[in-house]
């Protein structure tokens, strides 16, 4: 049986309150649990001591038995220590999902299409810039001849 230390939601609509529980991984989020080891109230200020309350001894005991904390609970456990010890109850490291910031396949395809379009437009602009440079002297000659014709007609 794999055990999880996780949050179980309580409270009413738009007023969340969580219990930190040890439960079988197959049990529903708010369903059956083995033991309640703490509480978390996200409505309180972040610096409030009442925001997260966890029995560190019970948490350490369950971790020794093989219970795995969820990401959020692991953060909480990394901030508390047992009495007489300097190390936290659980060593949590930031960023366990290396692909989280990468876009999906469709988004990568769209980025590639945009890059191809931009390259095509840049190539067309480059060709357009080269072509009028060759025709410019003929236009200048025509522009110089037009004022001379106007002067002659007067």
Automatic annotation (TrEMBL):
<dbReference type="GO" id="GO:0006412">
    <property type="term" value="P:translation"/>
</dbReference>
<dbReference type="Pfam" id="PF00886">
    <property type="entry name" value="Ribosomal_S16"/>
</dbReference>
<feature type="compositionally biased region" description="Low complexity">
    <location>
        <begin position="118"/>
        <end position="131"/>
    </location>
</feature>
<feature type="compositionally biased region" description="Low complexity">
    <location>
        <begin position="143"/>
        <end position="154"/>
    </location>
</feature>
<dbReference type="InterPro" id="IPR023803">
    <property type="entry name" value="Ribosomal_bS16_dom_sf"/>
</dbReference>
<feature type="region of interest" description="Disordered">
    <location>
        <begin position="91"/>
        <end position="154"/>
    </location>
</feature>
<feature type="compositionally biased region" description="Acidic residues">
    <location>
        <begin position="132"/>
        <end position="142"/>
    </location>
</feature>
<feature type="compositionally biased region" description="Basic and acidic residues">
    <location>
        <begin position="99"/>
        <end position="117"/>
    </location>
</feature>
<dbReference type="GO" id="GO:0015935">
    <property type="term" value="C:small ribosomal subunit"/>
</dbReference>
<dbReference type="GO" id="GO:0003735">
    <property type="term" value="F:structural constituent of ribosome"/>
</dbReference>
<dbReference type="GO" id="GO:0005737">
    <property type="term" value="C:cytoplasm"/>
</dbReference>
<protein>
    <recommendedName>
        <fullName>Small ribosomal subunit protein bS16</fullName>
    </recommendedName>
</protein>
<keyword id="KW-0687">Ribonucleoprotein</keyword>
<keyword id="KW-0689">Ribosomal protein</keyword>
<dbReference type="InterPro" id="IPR000307">
    <property type="entry name" value="Ribosomal_bS16"/>
</dbReference>
<comment type="similarity">
    <text>Belongs to the bacterial ribosomal protein bS16 family.</text>
</comment>
């Amino acid at each position: 049986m794999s055990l999880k230390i996780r949050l179980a939601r309580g409270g009413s609509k738009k007023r969340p309150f969580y219990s930190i529980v040890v439960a079988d991984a197959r049990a529903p989020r708010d369903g059956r649990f083995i033991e309640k080891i703490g509480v978390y109230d996200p409505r309180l200020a972040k610096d409030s001591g009442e925001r997260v309350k966890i029995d560190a001894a019970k948490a350490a005991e369950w971790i020794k038995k093989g219970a795995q904390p969820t990401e959020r609970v692991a953060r909480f456990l990394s901030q508390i220590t047992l009495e007489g010890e300097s190390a936290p109850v659980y060593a949590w490291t930031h960023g366990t999902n290396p692909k989280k910031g990468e876009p999906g396949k469709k988004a990568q395809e769209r980025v590639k299409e945009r890059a191809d379009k931009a390259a095509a437009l840049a190539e067309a602009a480059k060709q357009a810039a080269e072509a009028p440079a060759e025709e410019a002297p003929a236009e200048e000659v025509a522009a110089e001849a037009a004022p001379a014709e106007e002067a002659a007609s007067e």
